[in-house]
Amino acid sequence: MMEKATLIRARLKTPKAAAIAGIAFSLLMFTIIGLLGRAIPADPLESGIWLAADTRTIELALNLVPIAGVAFLWFIGVLRDRLGEQEDRFFATVFFGSALLFLAMLFAAAAVIGAVTLATSATEPNELMRSTTFRFARAAAYIIMNVYAVKMAAVFMFSTSTVVIRTGIAPPWIAYIGFLLALAILIGSYYVGWSFAVLPVWVLLISIHILMDNLRRP
Fold first, then answer.
1. How far is the CA of 187 from the CAs of 78, 120, 149, 154, 157, in angstroms?
2. What is the pLDDT of residues 69-83, one digit of tens each?
3. Tag placement on the chain: N or C end, fewer CB within 10 Å?
4. What is the span of the domain harbouring residue 195?
5. Considering its fold, how many domains does the chain have in total?
6. pLDDT tens-digit profile of 120-145?
7. Is residue 105 part of a domain?
């Protein structure tokens, strides 16, 4: 039985190139942020003129969100595999829980925006723009993304950076960058427009290091 379990474990071993999932997540998030930033104004109190324009760019960005979520889950698995027996239950719970909450809020905000764009196909854009429903949905999506989701991203970066320093799974300078970026978005996420792009930047940085380190190993 022990030999069989060892054989199964060997077959299920994480591929060396698995860290590419973090790179894929980052690139997808950069694409999503770019598409939505070009199509939807940053001001949550704007009038909603974009509803009268072509919404196919928004639909493309929203369809990429689930793919980015799957890539992020794979990235979390890569981190946990790299930790191995060094994984601390406290920090593992915090970074895993904050990552799941971040994804849940990302999906929730995408669903709200998707519902708004879907509603334009059932009614006149001008009528929807004047409705209380649109103003509520627009403000809700903005708050979910720029307050709660970004705060969870900061917690994820704090806890993961702490794990990096304690276990040495990546260079300390990556952890220090993570602390600084997490502190910046934790304090100013509601006021800084680029705060949502911080997590993909940091994930890209640590994923590139893990991928290069894995490929160097025999």
1. 29, 36, 13, 10, 14
2. 999 999 888 887 777
3. C
4. 17-216
5. 1
6. 655 666 666 667 777 888 888 888 88
7. yes
